[in-house]
Amino acid sequence: MNKYILITAALFLAGCHPDPDSVRAPATAWDMSWSTKEGTATITGSAYHIYFDYHYYPSGNGTMQTLPVGPGHKFTCAGHDVQLLPQSPASDPVVDHMFRYGTMTGPKVDSAEVAPFVRHVTCDADGQFTFSNLPAGVWYAVTNIWQGNIAVKEIRTQSGQTTSVTLKHDWNYPPSWRHGPHL
């Protein structure tokens, strides 16, 4: 009888596992120290958002149909700060906060754990930017395009290579497979 109780208890315990976030390494500066080294990778990119004017048409069934009119207005990151953050458990929630709340400043963004590792450049008049001398790794490029429209792109760099990216304000970030809904 005791054997069956032990087997049952073992099965129950085998089915238990900790929350993945509790197993994740603590967010420390060590997670991002690799990003301070000089490397040979380069990121070039642009950032934009197209805003359309809309016209409302009666649909015939008592509702209105909304359709974009004209070519749209293109807004770029010209004159705005572009931030490059190394991907780590410390920077993941910061980038999510930037995107979700449409801000690139604030106590969460300027935290002492992350701020020393953030690189900055300013978009030129054409909405172009370049980060040079980067070590190989995974980065987040973040910029404000227009009225709180934060664009985020995860970028993987390799030594000696130039990676070209386009940042657009899309609703498909942050990737749900990386972070739980508690952020």
TrEMBL record:
PROSITE patterns: PROKAR_LIPOPROTEIN (PS51257). SUPFAM superfamilies: Hypothetical protein PA1324 (SSF117074). This is Carboxypeptidase regulatory-like domain-containing protein.
